[in-house]
Amino acid sequence: MDRPYTILSCAVSLDGYIDDASPDRLRLSNDRDFDEVDALRAECDAILVGAGTVRKDNPRLLVRSQERRERRLAEGRTGDLVKAVLCESGKLDPCARFFVTGDAEKVVYTGASAYPAAEQRFLNAPDTSVVDAGDPPSLKTVLADLSRRGVRRLLVEGGTHVHTLFLTQGVADELRLAVAPFFVGDATAPRFTGPGVFPDGPGDPFRLDEVRRIGDIAVMRYRSRRSPDAGGGADDAGNAPHSGAAR
User: Fold this and answer.
1) Taking a C-beta distance cutoff of 8 angstroms, is the pair 49, 85 a contact?
2) Cβ neighbours for 72, distance < 8 A, ≥ 6 positions apart
3) Global pTM value
4) How confident is the model over 55-67, as pLDDT tens digits?
5) Residue 85: what are its φ and ψ, rounded to 5°?
């Protein structure tokens, strides 16, 4: 495969929302699931989110467990993942926590017309590079660039627009969904995906590989029938670690 093995990770409500419309982040997961997210991050080489996630949530997207960080360092890797953000306008704050935390590089993928201004904006941002991904930004370009940077396993943590892009373009190899035991019911709130033409539709659906319970949360792991198996990613019991909100 000439691109990273790509895992989409998301926590959703029973009616498919990933947040509500309030200014505060809606908690859709629990501490055990958050820890499994951390284990999943530690097994991947890079993490990617959209510009809206960086602006609204101001996440750090780090490996939190010191033990997992030390294991990565012992393997000759950085303690944290490469962090990538898809932002067509390039208009992000270089002082956001996404850019000023972590010991790995950060990459901003912009539209071609926005690239010159974005490159200037991040000129003095440490360990940060800006990449022209085309107009509009092309996932093929993004994934090829990440592959050249040595990324073999990519974790995607939203939001709606980014999840929809990966799924409609057929470049999601796995889905990990944590389903919270409540409804949001607000049409103005963001959902897991937006409308689109999905290759993994009724004629070629994802394969359900695993269902687990973490308290009242249901964790489901799906794999695309078109994708090869990925090495690693499972715990000692054979359970692959799972998803949650970016933070």
Assistant:
1) yes
2) 42, 63, 78, 79
3) 0.91
4) 999 999 999 999 9
5) -135, 135
